[in-house]
Amino acid sequence: MRGSFRLLLFLMLGATAAGWSPAHAQLLRVEVRDSASAEPVVRALVSVTDEAGTAVADGLTGEQGMLTLRLPRAGTWSVSVRRIGIAPRRLAGVRVDSGATVALPIRVANVRMLLPRVSVRANVSSCGRAPTGDDRAGTLWEQITLALRSSVLARAEAASAVSLRFTQRHRILSTNLEELSVEMLTQGIGMGRPYAAADPDTLARYGYVREMDDRGREYFAPDEVVLLSRAFVQTHCFDAPKRDADATLAELRFRPVRGRRVPDVEGTAYVDTLSGELRRIDFRYAGAAHLVPYSARHAGGSVALQRLPNGRWIVSNWFIRMPVFLETGSTDDRVVVNAYREVGGTVEPLDAPGPPRDPPAARPPAPR
To answer: Could you tell me where the DSSP H helices lie in 174-267?
Structure first.
């Protein structure tokens, strides 16, 4: 039996917003400046929500701290300005009439976000909904989603596009994760990222591990779009542990809600306790004992994020690790994990040390 996976590759990915006419539209022109220095605040995430708390528009401020958002209808809105590691600024009761363009100057203070202390009380999980409030889990979720959403929005901005050098590798590891072989798959330069996950709704419905007709298996991993999706939030529980393994990294754990009947993922997101920046998200497969046995305890993956000097977020390092099973010829249902196949890569700005490379191939080699 062998492992396989779904991997999408993109070259020179650059997206621009779809064209639209401002006629008869409701526009909100936000200008964000520092309350002390009056300097423009660049790459702050501005979000507009309705009375029910549903987000209707968001975007990142530009070099002059400016952003124009198109609203779906006339109404009274709440506007928030969020930055990594800084306490958010929220305004309520912003009225925008039909067809109107409203200028909204916002002054923000550089008040550091204070992460609540680890609680010695029993943890209360948030299941089927995002963590909210001023407790540790809610504060961590605020910072995590801010970084993920900023990464998604930055990829869609042609003006903020950065040339990136990426490398993909293929490794075979022992059951103890000792490297047995390594092969370079692709090296190249692009303006996007070299992979993307499957559709969130499809993953929620069919799972992250699936059997194939040739007795192989497909393995899927979550990305920013998946983690931010309603489908992921509704199918997972979130909580902060009583004690972090590393005092410099605050942890927010996620796991499938009780009763899930498809292979899913569980894991931990790590946030820098000083800067509030999301460092990485580790995951492993759960609820898939018939596809990923408990002996394959190292099956899973990791996604690391990095904020560039211009404020843009990128996925800087990632891997997905899949078990390779030994064909025993036995008639029983037990399987033996013989090794792990790992496909991963790194992404860095083009001005980082290293020579340019040729564009990547379209697909990785067949499983071994």
So the answer is: 200-206, 224-228, 230-234
Q: What does the angle CA 1 – CA 294 – CA 315 come to, to the nearest 5 degrees?
A: 85
Residues of the chain under the 50 pLDDT cut: 1-22, 331, 355-368
Cβ atoms of residues 183 and 170 within 8 Å: yes
Mind listing the pLDDT tens digit for each residue in 193-247? Answer: 656 678 999 999 999 999 887 667 889 988 888 999 999 999 999 999 888 889 8
Residue-range domain boundaries for the chain? 3-14+158-349
92-108 in b/e burial notation, b at 16+ Cβ within 10 A? eebebeeeeeeebebeb
Question: How far, in Å, CA of 89 to CA of 33, rounded?
Answer: 12
d(CA 368, CA 119): 46
Q: Name every residue whose Cβ is closer than 8 Å to that of residue 108 and which is 6 or more positions away in sequence.
A: 32, 33, 34, 35, 41, 44, 81, 83, 86, 89
Instruction: Report, in this order, helix, strand and coil percent for the chain, each rounded to 5.
Output: 10, 40, 45
**Beta-carbon neighbour count of residue 48 at 10 Å?**
24
What's the half-sphere exposure (Cβ side, CA atoms, 13 Å) at 364? 25
Burial code (b: 16+ CB inside 10 Å, e: under 16) for 339-364 equals bbbbbbbbbbbeeeeeeeeeebeeeb
Q: Give residue 108's pLDDT.
A: 96
Three-state DSSP class for 141?
Answer: helix
pTM of this structure: 0.79
Instruction: Give CA–CA dist 172/188, Å, rounded.
Output: 22
Structure tokens at 142: 């605020």
Cα Rg, the chain, nearest whole Å: 22
